[in-house]
Amino acid sequence: MFIATYKARWRALATMISVLAGAACSAATFSANNVGAIPDGTSSTCPAPGAPLNITFTATGLTSTALTDIRVSMTFGTAHPWGGDLTATLVSPTGISFPLFGRIGAVSVSAVGSSADLSGNYVFVDPAITSNNIWTAATNAPNPGSTMEGTYATTPVGGAGAVNPPTPTGFLAAYSTLTTAGVLNGTWTLQVIDNCANDTGAISAASLTLEQAAPVLQYSSAPSFIHFPTIPANTPSYAYPVVVFAPATNAQNVGFAANACVMTGANAADFMRLPDAVSVAPGSTGQLLVQFRPSSNGYKTATMTCTAQPSGVTPAQIIVQLDGAGGDALPPPNCYDVDGDGVMNPLVDGLFITRLQLGLPPGVAANNIAFQSPRNIAKKVVGFMLERCGYVVPSTP
């Protein structure tokens, strides 16, 4: 009976485990679609934007975690001989539009900007990564025909009211509201526009890199309370499990060392966790086994606190309330005397058992049977048979 109860509790524990969602931690780089020539501007009087070159990136596999870094790389396979003509803007799948650079060197509405070449590879990042300013690089570049290949912080578009060099802009902050997989995954667009005629170039390669925050290492556990049955003093109980579940998205194992659990409370010495180390791999379960050995008769309580490893895991501890009682073991039941009146009556006990064996449900099997005290109603009889005799209520056809 005790083993059956143990198994039943184990099955109940399995239904209590909840899956915690998490996310993978990595930087994902997406290659460009439809690179090529940048359509020329429509007039030599600036600004006169031509049709945009829309370079796209298909972002997949991103999860519901905030971005921690964002980078755009572009390679001018055919140099554009007048860098001040161009504007480059990144557009998220949700339509958030943010300039990487634009009209470098132009500080008035119609200014033509820098004549430094855009050739080779350029990477645009948040100012937290670098303070390099492409406007400063353009100013310092020998003109004409010079290049300013490198890695730069994002800057605003030149024109009326611009200063040279402008203050770098918050690239990462512009996309800080994108925190769910549904808005991060999809088509990102790098839009490159030539704002003045007579100079052309082409982009031969580009990439978008998105990095997300590391997820919190986490787990769940059950139960938070264990009630041990009454057992004789100085007799060990069966070991009951506290089940630990680690989600598949964890980056490493969650562990509990052999000495990770501490018992506190009035009867701490009467409870123990079996001293085996537990390491739970991502997507797996483990067990912390707890045993009760009452030192004397009477009601016993304690609290078990287990500290998880490594540091930073959530929750940091498992806390389980424990109780049980030391006392005389229950006498073996007489399962042929179902009402407990001390008589194995064939027209009461025997008839009820026979009807159950024939497949009748308990309520029907009890018809016209006069049960005696202490279990004088069918509900009490069935409860006794379930608890002490291993009776299983048949399922309804």
Model description:
This protein has three domains: 2-22 and 217-326, Immunoglobulins (Immunoglobulin-like, Sandwich); 27-212, Jelly Rolls, CATH 2.60.120.260; 333-397, no CATH class. It contains seven helices and 21 strands. It has helices at residues 2-16, 134-140, 171-174, 181-184, 346-357, 362-365, 378-388, and strands spanning 27-33, 36-37, 53-59, 67-80, 86-91, 97-102, 118-125, 150-153, 186-194, 202-203, 205-212, 220-222, 225-227, 240-245, 254-256, 261-264, 271-273, 278-280, 285-292, 298-307, 317-326.
User: Main sheet, how many strands, which sense, barrel?
Assistant: 9 strands, mixed
CATH architecture of the largest domain: Sandwich
Strand tally is 21
Structural class of the secondary elements?
alpha+beta
- In total, the number of domains comes to 3
The helix content, as a percent range, equals 10-25%
Low-confidence stretches: 1-25
Number of helices: 7
Question: How does the overall form come out from the CA principal axes?
Answer: elongated
The value of Rg in angstroms is: 37 Å
**What's the CATH topology name of the largest domain?**
Jelly Rolls
Strand content: 25-35%
CATH superfamily of the largest domain: Galactose-binding domain-like
The chain-level mean pLDDT equals: 90
SSE pattern: HEEEEEEEHEHHEEEEEEEEEEEEEHHH
SSE layout:
Layout: H1 2-16, E1 27-33, E2 36-37, E3 53-59, E4 67-80, E5 86-91, E6 97-102, E7 118-125, H2 134-140, E8 150-153, H3 171-174, H4 181-184, E9 186-194, E10 202-203, E11 205-212, E12 220-222, E13 225-227, E14 240-245, E15 254-256, E16 261-264, E17 271-273, E18 278-280, E19 285-292, E20 298-307, E21 317-326, H5 346-357, H6 362-365, H7 378-388
Parallel strand pairs: 7-8, 13-21
Antiparallel strand pairs: 1-3, 1-11, 2-10, 3-9, 4-7, 4-11, 5-6, 5-9, 12-14, 14-19, 15-18, 16-20, 17-19, 20-21
